[in-house]
Structures are given as structure tokens and as C-alpha cells.
Amino acid sequence: MDKQNCDAGAISATGRTLFPTVVSGTDNATGTSPCVARPLPLSLRVASIQAAIAAETEPLVTLTHLLQLCRDEHRVLQERMQDPDCRARAVLIATGVRSTLPPVLTELELGPEVRSALAAALTDGDDLPAVAVARLLAELLDERYCHSFRESFRHRSPYQPGVGDPIPLDSPDLREVTAMPATSPPWRLANRLDETRHVRLAGEWATQFQVIFDYSLATELTGILDPGTIVATCHPNRTLADFHFPADSHGRAFPIRPKNEDKQHQEIDRLISAAVTSGASIVVLPELCVTESLAARLQDWTCRTGGLKMLVAGSYHHDDEHDGSSRRRNTAIAYLRGAPAPLTQDKHSPADRPVNEDIQPEGWPQLHIHVSNDGWHVAMAICRDLLNPHAVHALTEAGANLLLVPAMSDTLVAFGGPVANLVGTCQAIVAVANNPADFSDAPNRRSGVPPGHYSGTQVSAS
Hints:
five-stranded mixed β-sheet; Nitrilase/N-carbamoyl-D-aminoacid amidohydrolase; six-stranded mixed β-sheet; 12 helices; 17 strands
């Protein structure tokens, strides 16, 4: 059996190699081939990282090499960094590297002197493991070159990280956005060795979901939330009787849609108008409250003077023709003022109650993270997607901090846990717009949200 390369270079969504490929070594004296290749002996791996760092001009890639070593040698790092003598020696070496940096850094690349100093500092020995120095060098690069990371991620956009690839940890200054006291961010609470203040390594969640960081609307999304922002959710329907549920012989329903599209349009317009009059600049509509054509007509609310900054126009069922085949989807759509095309997100966790939702999610679902210049990671989720613990974990790791959720449930109680996780971990702002669903045998049971109603929340008192 051929040996697999355990440390193969990661490839970004654009095809660019983020790290040089490192050839695995072996300590196999018998000549037999293991099913899974052994990692490189540490001395050889450190040497290969030194060579890569000496030649690499991009700070983000160098930081990734260092964080990967910290991740793989975490046991040694945890133990030895508690040793005052070990830490003092590592600090002394890192201080020597710091002295090669100019007082004010504006460059986006590492110069020859800095690269040489970084590579030379990363020597491994029994008395001072290389990983102890690598951790301090990673923190130094993050501190002094974080201004370059955004451009590194931007030129890879749309960027889909693999396991071990870097992901951005942007965040707005919430003290300028909300009057509510913020909880301590994770980088202050957790002793994670695979991240710094501004960058984290992607974990195994990248094999479950295609998490895509999109910078194409970074300018348009800038300022999406400020101290005066009001986010409103609108709830146009009273009961499930307002919807059409075509079902096949097995009880699978598709497409679920409003019974009277014109009446639905009038009611949604009335609710959005009331929200805008009350000062809302972001509106979220519920799941399946529109058709594809109705959603398109609602875009006008982000085009008119005095209209919305952003409208999440709910979600709709549709057949998606691609490569000659058809796939049934539940797609959320959002319109952003000044953006040429809408933002979309497909549902990946179909409902089985109150009806069996007949959609066909991708085997490797996409989660879109739209990044703004001021640190917002904007994402959408559709109802049960927010109840999928694996999806919530991926969104949390990706730093989603503005999550807009069209839903169709009889209660919002189940969403409390996932939302609390996102709020506590990412300082996220989450808005859920919920249309009625009936999970009991009682007909026409009402949802917890009053029908024909909008609710608005001001992010902060102005």
C-alpha cells in the first residue's frame, strides 16, 4: 500500500497551495508499510518548517505553519510552557526576532531579514522544544502583521478552508454597537493552541460542511449594524391553513408555498412598511412564506429611498436544474442595498414534522459566511439547520456573528440552546423570524408569535 502524506499542503478554493507539501518520513525498520503513514520525525518536520518560513513572504502562511506545529505538539507545549525557565528562554528568543521588526509596520510581506530571524529562532532541542518558541512567534506575527491577514483572505475569496487551513477571526467592536454587556470572548477564556487573536486553524468540521468565506460584498456589508440599528422580524401568517401542502403518496410535501400569493404579498408589504416606519433597517421574513417570484418582487425594498439596508426575504421551495439534473431545494434569499446579486443559503436539514419536507440537500452542504470590512461574519440558516449541532459548531468555529434565520416552528424554545452557544462563543447577534407550524394533533394551533405582526429589536440605544 502506498503511504499517504500526512502533512500534505492544503489547497484553497482558488487552487492556491497555502503551505508547501512536506514529505512524510518513516521510522519503519521492518520494511512493512502501515495503513496510515507515521508523521515526520519532529527534527525533520521542524527543519522543513524552517525552510518553508525562510522562503515565505506572506505572514498568514508563516503563521499557519507555526500554528500547525502548536496543534500537533500540543502536549509538549502545554507541559513545557508551565516551566518558568523554558518560557523565559523562549521569550528571550522571540524578543530577538521582535528586534528585527521596524517600530511601525505597514508592509504586507515578510522581508528577508525577518524571514531569516524567524527560521533561525525555530530550533529544536531537549532543553527548549521548538514548539515553545513557535507559539510565541505565532503571537508575535499575529500582533504585528494582523493588518495583512484581511488582504490574504480576500484575494483567496471565495475561500473554502480545509482541515488545518487558516480562517479569519474578525469581529466588530461590540462596545460601539450594543449597550448590552458582552461576555468574555473565547480567546480570553479558552487555552486553544490552534489559534491566535485573529486566526484559527480549521478543524474536522471542514470535512462535514463546505464553509465558504466570501469577501465580494465586504464593502456593501460594512456598517450593516451600528448603535441605532433596528432588526425586525415579520410574521405574515396565522396558521398552516395559509399554506398549500402538495404531498405525494408517501406524504412527502413539495413545494410548500402560500395559498394566495397576491394576498401574501400585500400582507408582507404592510408588515415591512410598518417596520421601516418604526426605523428598522434589517428585516427577516419566515421560512416558506414566499415563492421564488414573490421573493424577487420584494427586492424593491432595498432599492427605494428610505428603504431597508438588508431584507432576508424568507425562503422558498424550488427545483434547481444543474448539469442536466434536477434537485429540490429550500433556499433562503437576502437582498442587500447596493449589491448586484442576492445572498442565498440552501437548507441542509429537512423537516419531518409537521410535514415531511421533500428536499434533496447536497451531501457536502455549503455554509456561506459573508465577511464585511468591519468584522461582521454574516450568515443565514433555515429553521432546523440551527438545531443541527454539527452545523452550529461549524458556524461557531467560523466566527458567524450575525445570523439571520427564517424558520417555521410552533415554538422558539428549541432554538435557545444553539443561539446561546453562538452568543457566548462568537458574541453573535441572531434574529429568528418564525411562521406557524403545528406539531400537535390540535388543528390550527397558533405559533408563539402573533400573526400579522412584526417585532423589532434595537441593537443599542442611540
